């Protein structure tokens, strides 16, 4: 095919290499990011689901309808059950109100059960991942159950009417249940034994779980089907509801990756447009010649577009390959560093990548080449004949359209796409204006300068339009890179800040009043960081302003409908902030009731305001309180947090237990055993595993962010290179001429270097200014992280950009300056 | 290729009442005024005149690269002025070859590929051998794979001639084909041109400043400020 032959010849003469590189990079950026985020997303969902034990769980006070089993199987889902209840269990004369869980075959569907033969085992080689569930007649127990009941492994315990042999200790399990609802030590048994115990009777308090797992799409379809069949006592739960803080971190991370991808593609797109322009300018003569030889415009269009598409196809496939390799490298790095295996990607990101290659081609490269078929054949006789290319504004508008399309493809979020476009428009307008102003200023300053300076500045002035375009391109590229770098750093800081090294990683719950002092002493002796010991009473909200909860709009909301932890304190924790009403000393009751402070989001859901009356049921007793204040609090802080805080003393008569959280260094894990041996009633909730999980996730996202940053950086460099080489192209002849007239090499190189350095400096200044504006709006509206100035960049940005662009300019000009003028002139002609 | 049935008496190129005006910043400018001429098949015509007299403009219009403001042009029986650009392109493809002052070889292509280009565009069989053959005829069989940069001005012009004749045109237009060459090299190029003109019966229309070249043509016309001054028959 002729087009392919021409393409090959163009390739050989180096005219399409930049074009190909830009296209390849665009696709590599998109594919690297898209595939990686896709895999990351799957992994994250799977990992968090391991905490739940399933992808989705139907939870409620009634067992699930057995008819659903068949429906689930037809939908190719795995399913099993878990039944939670509190039951007094006996061993000889000892007894304990244990938290029993009876599980069906296959439990857990996600995550795993870790067991050991050594109570309180912490060493990895003592811990074993269970291959199934306890056999009928057997049970696995929490380590602390053994000292509580004075048991050894192999002993029997009585659960209701049935005896179970304890064969292993349970070290860890996935659990979606609220850890506060069952405070006893865990006993895990086989669901087959449940009827034999006869403990579960009509009316007893039992939480039934039906666990589901399968392909995401199948799960979704099944959920939609199931939802209408649930009765009011059943809820369909997944992880997203469970971990708010983590969800936000992930969301921010995803948005960043998206933003970076867009910026990367945009940079690659600009490089592509510049390269295409250069290609087109070089080919005006060729087209004129082809036309004089009798080639029609249509034929020329087909010839060139066919070349372009062939090039795009090859570059896209190679770009996809590069992206794939890059994301594999990062994924492998994750495996090396954190032993995390990423899930496999779906087809979608691959399709997006190929599509984005075509979009870049259509919207960035084609407009620049559009005029080629219209080159008049007379151009062959009259070289100076002007050729009208596509209007610049139209090209820019098309480029914006491309960005819009790409963002939509990526995020399927029109709002986000439009705001990106808005920001870009602002950026271009600001850079254009600034560049114009600075250029005028530099002309004034150039008046009394030396010859190198004069030559350099005169060059900039003479090609004012080109210079302006170049500054805008340089500035935009640098600005986007700066923005990305800073956003990345502050994001990582923000995430690390959310989880400081000494964040509490264990909760101690159910501390009896008489053990409070000894336990506080024990912790203080070890100098562990801990929160105050809060008294805690379990209670349920029954009335709002005298109206029964079941009659209100929030009757079915989870937070209102279950038992809550109630506390009292006189000092507010420092991450709590009163946003309405007053804190205790300043507060005055309107109804002569004890005061209560309510968490703000919850209050908002139910439309609660200070002065409203709430009635609670506490262990069968009812008490009324008046809302004194609304508070915000930080759910990510890993401290004891409460929806309801009462005025000191108001809950004294309801026999509280105490709760606290502390930071336990990893090496001191054995302290828990010591504590539990001495105080077996205490329930320890280990958050270290969850925290570890959050850390890994943060690390994963950070690594992704890093990769993206490198890719974008490559895009930025390509833009700079494209812009510099295209302007070198334009001055070949001039340099040759000046050299022929006897300008010394040093003067030529010096003025080129200066010219580009000044260009870089101006672009750098604009870039820093723009980046600050861009950053402020991004952090405010998109990423929701705090805004602060970056003084270091104010100096480093312009300087670096001057050095970089000056260097690039001199480097690409060297060959021209160094070749004998005769050859340069001959080539340029 | 062409199937136009023609009587031998129809001229290869005919123009009547050609006027060319362009609009510039200073207003309308008339470059060519009322030019009529005919070039018979196989004839050779030289266009001479001072710089800026409108020679290139006239050549472009005669060859169908450009349109006159008024008047009509026909080429091998096709009325160019009635055709659109696509139609004129077709006529050019079938009938016309060009040689230019600045040789217009594509720098990225080798000598052979430059000659190949029109043949490939026209879908000629055995394009490669034909192109190599023509390069041999202009004495460049040793330089097939050299790039234009590696060739001297005269060699480049010989490649351009090979390219122009390779597609076997009925009429060859040349704009100062020897303008950039020293007189010896120029003389050789002229020899080559007329040799091929004789051998293939190609009609020649060329612009030149050189008397020697103008003398070799059967006829010469002189332009002055866009007007046809004289038409001289050489003997
Ligand atoms: N498109 C145009 N716009 C403006 N002026 C034009 C245009 N085309 C030709 N001219 C002018 O018309 C005049 C004739 O141009 P042309 O190139 O035909 O001259 P020429 O005889 O070939 O001169 P030379 O011997 O120097 O090549 C010149 O003054 C030129 O500037
Ligand atoms: Mg001319």
Folded structure, characterized:
The complex is a heterodimer of chains A (829) and B (235). Chain A has 829 residues and is α+β, with helices and mostly antiparallel strands. The longest helix of chain A is centred in the C-terminal third of the chain and has 53 residues, at 688-740. The model of chain A has no long low-confidence stretch (mean pLDDT 79). Chain B is of the alpha/beta class. Chain B has one domain (11-233): P-loop containing nucleotide triphosphate hydrolases (Rossmann fold). Chain B has seven helices and ten strands. In chain B, α3 (111-121) runs parallel beside α5 (153-166). The model of chain B is unreliable at 1-7 (pLDDT under 50). At the A-B interface, α1, α8, α9 and α22 of A face α1, α2 and α3 of B. Adenosine-5'-triphosphate binds next to β1, β2 and α1 of chain B.
Sum this structure up briefly.
The complex is a heterodimer of chains A (about 850) and B (about 240). By secondary structure, chain A is of the alpha+beta class.
How far from one another are the termini of chain A? 30 Å
Shape category of chain A:
elongated
Q: In terms of quaternary structure, what is this? A: heterodimer
Instruction: Determine Rg of chain B (CA atoms, Å).
Output: 18 Å
**Average pLDDT for all residues of chain A:** 79
- Amount of beta strand of chain A: 15-25%
The number of strands of chain A is 22
Instruction: Domain count of chain A, please report it.
Output: 3
Order of strands across the biggest sheet of chain B? 6-7-8-3-9-10
> What is the name of the CATH class of chain B?
Alpha Beta
Assign the structural class of chain B, choosing from mainly alpha, mainly beta, alpha/beta, alpha+beta, or little secondary structure: alpha/beta
Helix/strand class of chain A? alpha+beta
* CATH superfamily descriptor of chain B: P-loop containing nucleotide triphosphate hydrolases
CATH architecture of chain B: 3-Layer(aba) Sandwich
Shape of chain B: globular
